[in-house]
């Protein structure tokens, strides 16, 4: 189910051309993943533009989502999309011609699963979020003892997809999907409902924002 409201379509052209997307699971009787797409205006106000319900986080589901997002909302060239670093959706982004960058918070979570080192996690976050000092933090990380495999792991992630230093200003300074989390918190009580009710309640919540 791809759900979008007319004010979202009309309003997107006035916003930054970077969109954030993240998913949350539906629970109880009705299973699936609820994807929310959010943008931000020049005054840093949050603007939801699309809501999608898919059966599971698989390539075809994300292709469906991206296809209709491009078709109905983000038809402009040069759209940048920030999300989780899921390998399974890599081909979906490529097939839609969308620039894909990673949320630094998710990069840090994946790092902790592999290495479980809080000090080095903080260095990696600083590497991603500090534009002029990337080399400083990278060299600091390399000089740390017992770093076997760590820099090799980092080198598997294209640096232009997770660091501001190599970003070429595509992500407008956005490093996380936190804006989506704000909308998810507003809609959290809908996730155990039938799909029709989820759509209706989402419409009412968005309608209260637009009026």
UniProtKB/TrEMBL annotation:
Domain MULE transposase residue range list: 19-109
InterPro entries found in the cross-reference section: MULE_transposase_dom
Taxonomy, superkingdom: Eukaryota
Coiled coil residues, start to end: none
Protein name: MULE transposase domain-containing protein
Naturally occurring in which organism (per UniProt): Cajanus cajan
Lineage: Eukaryota, Viridiplantae, Streptophyta, Embryophyta, Tracheophyta
